[in-house]
Amino acid sequence: MKLLVLGGTHHVGRALVETALERGDEVSTLNRGLSRPPAPGVRALVADRTDTAALAAALAGQEWDAVVDTWAWAPRVVRDSARLLAGRTGHYGYVSSRGVHRWPSTSGARTRAPRSSTATPTATTVPTTPPPSAAASWPPSRPTVSGRCWPGPG
After folding, report:
1. pTM for the whole thing?
2. Which residue from 48, 82, 114, 143 lies 20 to 30 Å from 90 (Cα-Cα)?
3. What is the spatial order of strands in the sheet that 92-94 belongs to?
4. Phi, psi for residue 50 in degrees, rounded to 5
């Protein structure tokens, strides 16, 4: 599977990258390239996601079977990324705990940390069709990673 992780050097993004590499997936990451180096075996794309033109240039002409977005800040950046990738990925997943838990978080916070009073479940549907590289295995399966269901194609 061709996977793009938006982020991918820290926290949940890094865990997704390492798990995908262990599965034998072809992994790309896109981030600013300022903090931690990419995991060995990753194709690193560099762009500032708040700059839509730079993001479009970094993603130009490419397709992935799945994209996982780990952005935790401005919702417009997630929207812009999803729009740029619509029609070029079979699945676009968004993961962020910052939208659920009270901010700023306390040191050592876990999944039972206090939730934001403004956190409400929402979903955005990005219409997708299988890219050519995934057409033979469409629809995607749902593999298990560490005993939990990972909602990406297998």
Report:
1. 0.66
2. 48
3. 43-46, 26-31, 2-6, 66-69, 92-94
4. -80, -10
